[in-house]
Design goal:
By secondary structure, the protein is of the alpha+beta class. Helix content is 38%, strand content 20%. It folds into four domains: 9-55 and 302-416, Aspartate Aminotransferase, domain 1 (Alpha-Beta Complex), CATH 3.90.1150.10; 88-276, 3-Layer(aba) Sandwich (Aspartate Aminotransferase, domain 2); 435-606 and 788-803, Aminopeptidase, CATH 3.40.630; 610-784, Aminopeptidase. The protein contains 27 helices and 29 strands. GO terms for molecular function: 8-amino-7-oxononanoate synthase activity; pyridoxal phosphate binding; transaminase activity. Residues 632-773 form the BioF2-like acetyltransferase domain. This is Aminotransferase class I/II-fold pyridoxal phosphate-dependent enzyme. One of its GO terms (biological process) is biotin biosynthetic process.
């Protein structure tokens, strides 16, 4: 079967960023003829600046400015030579001073991204392994991924989850020489820090463990000579720790610095470090400014600057502690994160604060999970006490209004960030005239109404859902027990605006991942069957495919009805502690896409849906005329001539032996079809199909002359649901792969399905997902589909991204 298309991560990020840009909180331009650091001019308004990463304000220090100008006048705007040949005359002085700072061998790099790209492939050798903290900076992850081409294994752990780290170390220690754990010293979004004491204990316990620490956000504002958070904890840098600092951000200049006390490793990086060899060197102005900053760092003045910043940080912490604002991480770093939960709430609050005169950053996917959006406030020496107090007052005033504007609550936000809840009073309904019907069985839903709204769309008419409820209950294995949840939202006239159903079930998290990822995960699952599986609250069910929601978009309140539905499933998510929410099988719709994103979902591409929308021909002799010229040739060459090889049986009540045969054929396909990786369905399902009037089996048997005298052995079967005389749905397929290529079994099953639907006078066929190329050739219309996903964190997605080409 053809492989399915998968979502491009960059496309998802582009949509998220585009929405944020349209909301006026991203890709802004600073204005004005000068800049002091205390205020920043945006949209013709001067705002107090609480978004800088220059925490000590050194970028505005007159000494650095003068040094930079002198550097330009003496050596030009750039020094256009590779540093491998000859360095700018100022480089030697800078390297000497940075070496004094760290009291260790250092390497200056153009920036941290190029530095990681140069250093990581140099220090990580073939025979080593890498473990990434899943929140380590993107630049580290990107550089590590380069090593996949050298077959260096890359694993990932949940953020600062040291038990998980130790398990990975134990797993890798017998196979690899060194194990590199890569993490940040201070994390740039929440301002939390690496557990360095515990990490060093692990290093002592496992000599193979080496640490690669990016401390660019810990630089200057703390530590001896401003060498950062990591060295403030370690005092000296051991040989098994490689440290990255920065000469930009708080340091006030440009560039980055790698610190390495291992002599051979240092020599290797220094002599040839890939991008460090071939990329341009720092401009004279940057080198000169960095020298001036290094002089400040080497003097007692650095501690005065650190203390001044600490006073401001302490003030902000003290003021926040007197409020109910959801500060995600409390410590003494200059980075603060106030959770808003949904992106739309974040947009609202950022815009409110800008109108009030404050500039803050928005923390958004992929830097944080979509539902962990928030405002990132950074404190610097530029900020004065009066504007710090005013910012807190403004947040206290505007935060509840932003929540109210976007129909959310403080406790919803706190739950998203696992913070203590306030036990607030329930808020009033969004629209008083709405009525929300929620039930747990289709038997509590009016059959006529449900079939009118949802009945002609697949295996989820009223009878089909009752069948599924009976199948997926009281089973031995957890993945075969599903909870069903039905939601119908009506207006004041009791007219339905929205109807849908959800199931709560165990999914493989790689269900829609690339085949290469599923192959690796299935190897792990041979010993750990439930590895990387999660309880999912998903629209529709793992069994069904199609348009799982009825939505009247002509109704003036359709968006609010959708919000009511999301509120209800959020309640269910909390009740079940679900790891994922999935809204699936939508066609591309910009309005829905924006609505779901702003409510904390990201869009992912699903396999295409394949449907024959109109079986208008009266006989199968007319069918070929419905095909394109190319498909007609395919039909005459690869389908029609093979039909005579088979005996075709339309079986509505197979016996036990036949059910066993059909189930074996189904399992063959399920094992092969990693393009849509699902748990195998229970045999009980197929037994109950045989007893249900709406199900039938199209079985094909090779005639004896084509099968070495054997007969009565099916080589293919299609499991088909008859939906209210409207839609014929071949829900699943089974095949014997020993015969598929020689006898065109799959194509024959598609054709026989069309013949059967035509004979029974159905109006359309829903062929479902995957193998769209083959289905198109028999006349199916290909309909792109998307899903909207909300995960508790990004770990699984990032892990599978690491695995994709590993």
């Amino acid at each position: 079967m053809a492989k399915i298309k998968h979502n491009n991560f960059l496309d998802t990020v582009n949509e998220v960023f585009t929405d944020a840009k349209e909301q006026g909180v991203l890709h802004l331009y600073a204005e004005g003829d000068s800049f002091t650091g205390r205020k920043i001019r945006v949209k013709q308004k001067d705002l107090f600046h609480f978004g800088t990463t220059g925490y000590l304000g050194l970028e505005q220090d007159e000494r650095l400015k003068k040094a930079a100008m002198d550097g330009v006048y003496k050596y030009g705007t750039q020094f256009p030579l590779s540093k491998s040949y000859i360095s700018n005359p100022l480089y030697a002085k800078l390297e000497e001073k940075i070496t004094q700072l760290y009291n260790a061998p250092i390497i200056i790099t153009k920036n941290s991204t190029l530095g990681h790209l140069g250093v990581i492939p140099s220090v990580v050798e073939d025979g080593d392994a890498i473990i990434l903290d899943h929140q380590v900076h993107w630049s580290v992850q990107s550089a590590a991924n380069v090593l996949k081409t050298r077959s260096v294994p890359i694993e990932m752990i949940r953020h600062s989850h040291l038990d998980m780290l130790e398990d990975k170390i134990k797993k890798l220690s017998s196979k690899y020489k060194k194990i590199w754990y890569m993490a940040d010293g201070v994390y740039s979004m929440y301002g939390d820090v690496a557990p360095l004491d515990e990490l060093m204990e692990l290093c002592n316990k496992y000599p193979q463990l080496h640490l690669y620490l990016d401390d660019v956000h810990g630089m200057s504002w703390t530590g001896k000579h401003g060498t950062g958070y990591v060295l403030s904890k370690l005092d000296e840098l051991p040989e098994n720790v490689l440290l990255f600092g920065t000469l930009s951000k708080t340091f006030g200049a440009s560039g980055a610095v790698a610190v390495c006390t291992h002599k051979k490793r240092y020599h290797k990086i220094k002599t040839f470090g890939g991008p460090l060899t071939f990329s341009a060197q720092l401009e004279p102005a940057s080198v000169a400014a960095a020298i001036a900053s290094a002089d400040i760092h080497l003097s007692p003045e650095i501690y005065m600057l650190q203390n001044e910043l600490l006073e401001r940080i302490t003030l902000f912490n003290t003021l926040l502690s007197k409020t109910d604002l959801p500060l995600v991480e409390q410590n003494n770093s200059p980075v603060f994160y106030i959770g808003t939960g949904m992106p739309v709430t974040g947009y609202n609050l950022v815009n409110r604060l800008m109108k009030e005169g404050f500039f803050v950053n928005l923390g958004i996917f992929p830097a944080v999970p979509v539902k962990n959006t928030g405002i990132r406030v950074t404190i610097s020496r530029h900020n004065q006490a009066e504007e710090i107090k005013s910012l807190v007052d403004a947040m206290v005033y505007h935060y509840p209004k932003a929540l109210e504007d976007t129909y959310t609550t403080p406790d919803k936000v706190r739950i998203a960030f696992k913070l203590p809840i306030l036990n607030e009073k329930p808020k009033k309904k969004i629209v008083d005239e709405f009525s929300v019907q929620y039930v747990k069985t289709i038997q509590d839903v009016d059959k006529i109404e449900w079939n009118k709204l949802m009945g002609k769309k697949g295996v989820f008419d009223w009878d089909g859902l009752l069948f599924l409820e009976n199948v997926f209950t009281k089973n031995e294995r957890s993945e075969n027990n599903w909870d069903f949840h039905y939601i119908i939202i009506r207006d004041e006239a009791h007219i339905p605006i929205l109807a849908t159903f959800f199931t709560y079930a165990l999914w493989k998290e790689d269900m829609l991942a690339p085949v290469s990822v599923s192959i690796k995960l299935e190897e792990t699952r041979k010993n750990d069957p439930y590895y990387l599986t999660s309880n999912v609250l998903g629209m529709g069910s793992p069994f069904t495919e199609g348009e799982h929601v009825y939505l009247d978009k002509s109704h003036p309140y359709w968006k609010l009805a959708m919000k009511q539905m999301l509120d209800k499933i959020e309640e269910l998510e909390l009740e079940f502690n679900s790891n994922w929410l999935v809204l699936r099988d939508f066609e591309n719709d910009e309005e829905l896409s924006q609505l779901f994103h702003q409510q904390g979902f990201i869009k992912t591409v699903m396999p295409d849906s394949c449907q024959i929308l109109d079986l208008y021909w009266k006989t199968m002799d007319e069918y070929p005329e419905s095909l394109s010229t190319r498909s007609r040739k395919h039909f005459k060459k690869d389908i029609l001539p093979y039909e005579e090889r088979f005996n075709i049986v339309h079986n509505v009540s197979p016996n036990d032996t036949q059910i066993d045969q059909f189930y074996e054929l189904y399992n063959n396909v399920n094992k092969h079809n990693l393009a849509l990786n699902m748990f195998p369905l229970p045999k009980k399902l197929f037994t109950m199909m045989a007893q249900h009037p709406n199900w039938e089996f199209i079985a094909i048997y090779l005639k004896e002359e084509f099968n070495k005298g054997k007969s009565h052995i099916p080589v293919g079967v299609m499991f088909c649901y008859k939906n209210l005389g409207a839609t014929y749905t071949p829900a699943f397929i089974g095949m014997d792969y020993n015969y598929t290529d020689e006898h065109q079994v799959y194509r024959q099953l598609l054709y026989q399905t069309i013949k059967r639907a035509t004979k029974l006078k159905f109006k359309k066929i829903d062929f479902g997902m995957t193998a769209s190329f083959e289905k198109k050739k028999v006349g199916a219309t290909i309909i792109p589909k998307v899903a909207y996903i909300q995960a508790k964190d990004n770990y699984s997605m990032e892990l599978m991204g690491v695995m994709e080409t590993n």
